[in-house]
Amino acid sequence: MGKASRDKRDIYYRKAKEEGWRARSAFKLLQIDEEFNIFEGVKRAVDLCAAPGSWSQVLSRNLYLPAKLAPDSKDSDLPLIVAIDLQPMAPIEGVIQVQGDITNARTAEVVIRHFDGGKADLVVCDGAPDVTGLHDMDEFVQSQLILAGLTIVTHILKEGGKFIAKIFRGKDTSLLYCQLKLFFTEVTFAKPKSSRNSSIEAFVVCENYSPPEGFNEKDLHRLLEKIGSPSGADDLDCSSGWLEGPNKVYIPFLACGDLSGYDSDRSYPLPKAADGSTYRSLDPVQPPIAPPYKRALEMKKASMHGVQGLEKLSLDS
Ligand code: SAM
């Protein structure tokens, strides 16, 4: 699909370029904020799986820049934002970048060091593995990423803090809900308007972090396993212990964002330029600086130059 054609079919892709966001995902976080007011009172935030950086841009524009531009701004009071991804990303004002794996236990330690021992008020995670198209497999890998996010949360989130994470809706959704409800008093599944209806993607908004009394981070996996096994999730009755009554689990699900606003599944006509000339598509705000496909392209090119090209590539890397 060409750029102009995508501009027509994907209004949020076009709007992202017009408003200077690195990815259309920025609108998802903004629309979640419209509904849940997630940035209120936030002084320390962590963006897990942040590249190419549009959620970090949202954090910078909503937390860091207003504080920095305030007339009585003091450096010591500026919000701290730490962004983590496997991939490097171009700098963003007010965002400390860490290149790392969120499934690695040491990642939480790095964040804690940046916060000088303090804890975060907000953790967001838009992590996505490479999608295979095999629904169950994709959902499983995605849920592992959320559990990695939750592990980090138990180390770095302040009591009362919030955790927002991308999920793929599927048969394990009720299990995930039960697991998260153990740590947060409010857990809501949200579908922002900018996330296509045709996509199984949704976001879990967890509010008021309050781990069980006497909780030890080392016990997390034992606790989660106790709640249920993925295969039993469909029939899961979360009434044991913390949900009273005979009711099966009821998952709050909310559409969010201005519902009369742009529909991500619709095509919109392309506007003319201000001088009346025909529409010119904008370039992406920030192309990825080291995308995984770059090496594949290099290898393909090198193989076209035969064995010598491949030898040169392996010497260069
Ligand atoms: N929120 C980002 C934005 O607005 O620009 C988009 C995130 S993108 C959908 C998913 C990211 O998850 C990718 O950049 C990928 O590198 C990252 N990711 C996947 N698995 C990861 C892991 N184990 N640790 C850190 N990052 C990971």
UniProtKB/TrEMBL annotation:
<keyword id="KW-0949">S-adenosyl-L-methionine</keyword>
<protein>
    <recommendedName>
        <fullName>Putative tRNA (cytidine(32)/guanosine(34)-2'-O)-methyltransferase</fullName>
        <ecNumber>2.1.1.205</ecNumber>
    </recommendedName>
</protein>
<feature type="binding site">
    <location>
        <position position="101"/>
    </location>
    <ligand>
        <name>S-adenosyl-L-methionine</name>
    </ligand>
</feature>
<keyword id="KW-0489">Methyltransferase</keyword>
<dbReference type="InterPro" id="IPR028590">
    <property type="entry name" value="RNA_methyltr_E_TRM7"/>
</dbReference>
<feature type="active site" description="Proton acceptor">
    <location>
        <position position="166"/>
    </location>
</feature>
<dbReference type="GO" id="GO:0106340">
    <property type="term" value="F:tRNA (guanosine(34)-2'-O)-methyltransferase activity"/>
</dbReference>
<dbReference type="GO" id="GO:0002128">
    <property type="term" value="P:tRNA nucleoside ribose methylation"/>
</dbReference>
<feature type="binding site">
    <location>
        <position position="55"/>
    </location>
    <ligand>
        <name>S-adenosyl-L-methionine</name>
    </ligand>
</feature>
<dbReference type="InterPro" id="IPR002877">
    <property type="entry name" value="RNA_MeTrfase_FtsJ_dom"/>
</dbReference>
<dbReference type="Pfam" id="PF01728">
    <property type="entry name" value="FtsJ"/>
</dbReference>
<keyword id="KW-0819">tRNA processing</keyword>
<feature type="binding site">
    <location>
        <position position="126"/>
    </location>
    <ligand>
        <name>S-adenosyl-L-methionine</name>
    </ligand>
</feature>
<feature type="binding site">
    <location>
        <position position="53"/>
    </location>
    <ligand>
        <name>S-adenosyl-L-methionine</name>
    </ligand>
</feature>
<keyword id="KW-0963">Cytoplasm</keyword>
<comment type="similarity">
    <text>Belongs to the class I-like SAM-binding methyltransferase superfamily. RNA methyltransferase RlmE family. TRM7 subfamily.</text>
</comment>
<dbReference type="InterPro" id="IPR015507">
    <property type="entry name" value="rRNA-MeTfrase_E"/>
</dbReference>
<dbReference type="InterPro" id="IPR029063">
    <property type="entry name" value="SAM-dependent_MTases_sf"/>
</dbReference>
<keyword id="KW-0808">Transferase</keyword>
<dbReference type="GO" id="GO:0002181">
    <property type="term" value="P:cytoplasmic translation"/>
</dbReference>
<feature type="binding site">
    <location>
        <position position="85"/>
    </location>
    <ligand>
        <name>S-adenosyl-L-methionine</name>
    </ligand>
</feature>
<dbReference type="GO" id="GO:0005634">
    <property type="term" value="C:nucleus"/>
</dbReference>
<dbReference type="InterPro" id="IPR050082">
    <property type="entry name" value="RNA_methyltr_RlmE"/>
</dbReference>
<feature type="domain" description="Ribosomal RNA methyltransferase FtsJ">
    <location>
        <begin position="21"/>
        <end position="209"/>
    </location>
</feature>
<comment type="function">
    <text>Methylates the 2'-O-ribose of nucleotides at positions 32 and 34 of the tRNA anticodon loop of substrate tRNAs.</text>
</comment>
<dbReference type="GO" id="GO:0005737">
    <property type="term" value="C:cytoplasm"/>
</dbReference>
